[in-house]
Amino acid sequence: MDVDHAIQFTLKGQEAMQLGQYEEAACAYHEAIRLAPRLDGAYFQYASALLWRGLPNEALAALDRCVALGGPWREHASGLAASVRAQLGAPPKKSKWAAIRGKVLTS
């Protein structure tokens, strides 16, 4: 895990988000996830960029992974995932933890 470099990519993603460059932001967050797949905040940020790009199903996968990691972003990710599922008319998750265990997301 290369957390230091991953954090640099999350910072690049944040800059891109502020400029409205959501695809670039998603790419930066995706790279952060590739470098540090247990960095839960990167999944949350990746999901945010995907939502801004109009990709709610892909965002749900990232949010579910964030929840599954059980880190400090878990509650935020769980709440946002519930909101996205409600907007999509999808049923809520039934299990305590959503699982996309061991996978790095691609977009």
Biggest sheet overview: none
Number of helices: 5
Find the count of extended strands (DSSP E, 2+ residues): 0
> What integer value in Å does the Rg equal?
13 Å
Shape: globular
Termini distance? Answer: 21 Å
Low-confidence stretches: 96-107
H-E order: HHHHH
Strand content: under 5%
Give the averaged pLDDT, no decimals. 88
**What share of the residues lie within helices?**
55-70%
Q: Report the structural category.
A: mainly alpha
Question: What does the model show?
Answer:
- By secondary structure, the protein is an all-alpha fold.
- The protein is 67% helix and 0% strand.
- It is built from five helices and no strands.
- It has helices spanning 3-18, 22-35, 40-52, 56-69, 74-88.
Strand and helix layout:
Blueprint lengths: L2 H16 L3 H14 L4 H13 L3 H14 L4 H15 L19
Helix pairs in contact: 1-2, 1-3, 2-3, 3-4, 4-5
Question: Which key features would you list for this structure?
Answer:
disordered C terminus; mainly alpha; 107 residues; single chain
Give a summary of the structure in a few sentences:
The chain is mainly alpha-helical. Helices cover 67% and strands 0% of the residues.
